[in-house]
Amino acid sequence: MTLTNADITELTALRHLLHQHPEVSGLEQGTARRVITALTDHTPDRVLTGLGGHGVAAVYDGEGQGPTLLFRCELDALPITEQGDLPHRSTVPGTGHLCGHDGHMTVILALARLLSRQRPARGRVVLLFQPAEETGAGAAAVLRDPEFETISPDYAFALHNMPGLPLGHVGLIPGPVNCASRGMSITLSGKSAHASEPENGRSPMQALSHLMPALTALSRGIPQDHDFTLATVTHTSMGAPAFGIAPGEATLYVTLRTLVDAQMQALCDRAETLVTNTAAAHDISVEISYHDIFTHCANDPDATLILRKALDALHVPHDARGLPMRASEDFGRFGQRARAAMLFLGAGSTHAALHNPDYDFPDDLIPIGARIFHQVARDMLG
Fold it and tell me: Can you say whether residue 136 is alpha, beta or left, with left for phi > 0 and alpha for psi between -120 and 50 degrees?
């Protein structure tokens, strides 16, 4: 069973609609409503709403006993202004689907079409539309939700588009595929003063100037190295936007990455030691907090083999190129509850990178992604 040309036309229009109305993490009410509306035409046996916030899950039951397969996508967009003149560009100022979650949702809705036409012979399929992936909070919230226990999967699968890979080519390996990461927020507090008398204050300027290159110098290696670390300065601010005040406070955001969770604490310890020693040397106080915490994402060997067999059956080319990714992915938490694996679907060798203001999900990937996941469901559940 395959998608018809009419299906693909309708699904493309739906993807464009989702793209036009992006919502950031935790605020995906409208996106969830559009997903629920689309699902009503595809007759799931159950639809769960409000999972971990605005999450939605559609359940397709087979007649016989068998495993539960979960196919997961993401609801949220990014707080980035889209650039370009696409006819379906974002209508929401400062917000855009610049990671492809609109396309991932459409792939799963395409799978819903196929399942509605032929239910699995046994077991069940759960289609999960997860909230708040971009902040690393959504998967944990879904897993904590008591309703999730009613759909607890044996296997979990997901895909992410990957610019840089040829269109339709798949990156797939067992083991780590996405790095652990967390945002480190640093607040440096001294004492403000009149700009004509800076000596009467304690400015964080020197400490801030030292920390930005010093923290980034904690980076080493490449993602294929077990001890890979990366520290990226993502934001800074200092003082009031005024000419008459020497600053007394500064803020610095740094994103820390390691290949696996086990290496993260050591990187945090090195960063914290550097920050506290620098603050003390400049007679200012410091506060540190962590946000957007992602665990590393690792592909279970058995689940990876299932994906590989489906790709081979469909003659979809695949290899290990581009993996592990430096980017983080909230899907890793599902691997704590199920045999989980994610594949990376090529968006084109020269396609705009993820999170770039001119990125747009390639519509040609919709039927490819749906066909891969449908093959997995048929292989495992008949």
Answer: left
Structural contact between residues 124 and 318, judged by C-beta atoms closer than 8 angstroms? no
CA distance 291 to 56: 25
* Total count of domains within the chain: 2
- 37-64: average pLDDT: 97
User: Under a CB-based contact definition with an 8 Å cutoff, are residues 57 and 127 in contact?
Assistant: yes
User: Could you write out the DSSP letters of every residue in 248-260?
Assistant: -EEEEEEEEEESS
- The whole-angstrom separation of Cα 150 and Cα 39 is 19
* Residue 78 in tokens: 């990014």
Find the mean pLDDT for residues 39-63.
Answer: 97
Do 276 and 242 fall into the same domain? yes
Q: Is 101 annotated as a binding residue?
A: yes
First to last CA, the chain: 12
Q: Stretch 292-302: mean pLDDT, rounded?
A: 97
Give the pLDDT score at 226. Answer: 87
| Same domain? 364 vs 220 | no
Same structural domain, 150 and 20: yes
160 annotated as ligand-binding: yes
pLDDT exceeding 90 applies to what percent of the chain? 99
Helix segments in the chain, DSSP class H: 5-20, 29-40, 101-117, 138-144, 205-216, 264-281, 301-313, 365-381
Cα–Cα distance for residue pair 339/303, rounded to 1 Å? 6
> Which one-letter DSSP state was computed for residue 187?
E
pLDDT digits (tens, 9 = 90+) for 152-196: 999 999 999 999 999 999 999 999 999 999 999 999 999 999 999
Yes or no: say if 226 and 153 are a contact pair by the CB < 8 Å rule: no
What CATH code is carried by the domain that includes residue 234?
3.30.70.360
pLDDT-based confidence at residue 1 (cuts at 50, 70, 90): confident
Tell me the chain's radius of gyration from C-alpha atoms: 23
105-135: b (≥16 Cβ within 10 Å) or e: bbbbbbbbbbbeeebbeebbbbbbbbbbbbb
Domain carrying residue 229: 180-294
Residues 41 and 163 in one domain: yes
User: Do you find a cis peptide bond into 324, omega within 30 degrees of 0?
Assistant: yes
State yes or no: pLDDT of 77 exceeds 80.
yes
CA–CA gap between residue 113 and residue 323 (Å, rounded): 31
